[in-house]
Write a structure and sequence with these properties.
six-stranded mixed sheet, eight-stranded parallel sheet, Alpha/beta knot, elongated, single chain
Length: 263
Amino acid sequence: MGLPRFLVDRLEEHGTVWLGESESHHAARVLRLQIGDRCVVFDGLGHESHGTLEAVDKKTVGVNYQTRTFAPRDHEDRLHFAIGMPKGDRQRNVIEKLVELGVDRLTPIDTHRSVSKLDADGIEKLKRYMVEACKQSQRNRLMRIDPCCGLRDWLARSVQCQESSLWMLHPQSLLEDPASRGRIVQRDRWLAEDRSLDDSCSGSRTRMVFAVGPEGGFTAGEVSEALELGVLLLDLGERILRVETAVSVAAVLGSLKIRQSGT
């Protein structure tokens, strides 16, 4: 088992950092750490330090460290997702998979079939899940989580970014418009090194952006609107995947495509 990890506001090159109230409570009251115990502190911006507890009381814990290392363990803002989030505990599952697989940014989207409406409190809950997942996975740069927005607004903003390669996940078997079937790419072909599938993938800093629908997927109208804006369709296989599974598969594929770019 690895050392306990705590999120801090800032890490200098060396010195003593004081944990916030919540992290201090977790260290002193939950884990019952004592002076001399070792831990890792990270600032959410990519830096981490191995340190030793030098002060422990009920509300404050001080950690002394000698060096700071930059190890973000993500994709450097090149892997984004827009997701029609599921309900309840499945939201935690989605966040955990995104964080563990190095996704840099999440935009929750409201679609026609969305069942989860995320207000400001809901977004804060997602961020708490995200911090917990960063601790568990030893990730040092926090994933960005945007406020929830409508699919149409998200599409309008995203297509304006010339450095993004936009893909909507949609099974071919659910396409209602036969004309759209020629514009969908199968998973295996998408992974092939044939860059003609998407010329924007040849850019060294291209962002891979995936839109994932809620349970039931995107409607025919939403798919048509995305296609009109130049978004491409990606079919992950012959089986229908739940949201958290589709997210995991697409995150792995996106990571592989980023590695193929050679940067």
